[in-house]
Amino acid sequence: MTTKNVNPNVSVDCVVFGFDNERLKVLLIEQKLSDKEKVQLALPGDLIVDDEGLDEAANRVLFEISGLSGIFLQQYRAFGDPDRVSDIKDLDWLKSYRSNPQARVITVAYMALVKMEDFSPEASSFAERVFWQDIEETPQLAFDHNKILFEALERLRDDFVNYKTGFELLPEKFTLGHIQRLYETILGKDLDKRNFRKKILKEKLVSPTNQKQTGVLHKPAVLYKLNHEKV
Amino acid sequence: MTTKNVNPNVSVDCVVFGFDNERLKVLLIEQKLSDKEKVQLALPGDLIVDDEGLDEAANRVLFEISGLSGIFLQQYRAFGDPDRVSDIKDLDWLKSYRSNPQARVITVAYMALVKMEDFSPEASSFAERVFWQDIEETPQLAFDHNKILFEALERLRDDFVNYKTGFELLPEKFTLGHIQRLYETILGKDLDKRNFRKKILKEKLVSPTNQKQTGVLHKPAVLYKLNHEKV
DNA sequence: TTTCGCAAGTGTAAAATTTACACTAAGTTT
DNA sequence: AAACTTAGTGTAAATTTTACACTTGCGAAA
Question: N or C terminus of chain B with fewer C-beta within 10 Å?
């Protein structure tokens, strides 16, 4: 916790999606309820402090809870139902660290997508544990966090449908199959290999290197690299 | 003003676009600065109260300031730079009705698009005047309201590019020319008449009636009507 | 009553994009 | 040597997008 005044009415929550070349996951935290044995799962999030911007708050909170930094967090909307924090078990936990747990909290939701291998979350602050959860098996989360997560996923897919994002999630050298698997994972459906390749290559965002995969148990694929970003 | 406790940290701002079959306008309010003669222009907006949802707050605030109700307001993002309310003249005015004008306020921004003829804004609450301002000639607004407005316009155009919205802004009977003018107004560019008609008619959202325009000084156009909404 | 101005209304060809679809190639493992 | 696995490749059909110019019917003006 910081020493600055927290703003008791506004929080940020971060939906950090992670891709491991295989599955789509989301960063969750586990926190102990005050009295009981029970634990609570939630998205990383906390109240903002008075002199920081929302974007700044999102980055700080994510860092304080999970140790992750340098992630581009994109705001996608605010949630503010007066009863979004209403569940008994939620309140029970809230009481343990907030002075006025009844007050309604507006939360501003942020979203990011990262390569899992680049980040090793480590729990701190009030988080007992931080971990990557497979998106297909999302458990019940605290407050309205399931809703916040669901809308983040919708937004993420929207960003992918025009086929121009996501390359930054791949290793430095990658195959076209890797990109396709990424798209199939995010969009949740299969894509035609030939059509996909045509489309990706037409975008001119990647170029072939003169290297190939090694040590794979099939025909080795040509490795591609990302072209220099245009600012 | 309501008698309930206002939340001193969170406000809503409403960007209400109005279309008058000709131009795109935005609803602005004018408020007096405390001491001086000067006036301040702004988007309708105010602090939320403690037991209302954000959507509810947006509708309430818009109603209290302008008398408008029954408008579908869509949230599009939150703004929360700590110094978004920093201008001297802004503060000067703020002091006149807020107990703690220094405090940072997060604002949640809402957007709507309406037929101007359906709504007659009337100033109340702290607004001296409420009026429709042509979007092409937007003046300097209070706080970061120019930015909030600009982003709303971007979002509005995004919603129009797939050609499937906006019909609700037209009169009950309308011509294809009306729709085209609407699209040209929102998108801010000219469209090919034949191609536009093809596209609109293919969507099957409108059907021709057996009536035509009267009293126009050119060939009268067939009037169309909106098909029954599908839920 | 003729002429003029104005927006309505209409079709086609070329280009670009999207979609569906099946076999061979080059490695590793057995 | 056979089996397995993913890489890699081309084409035809369908659909969508784009560019483009003249005639029609009304009211207003001459």
Answer: C
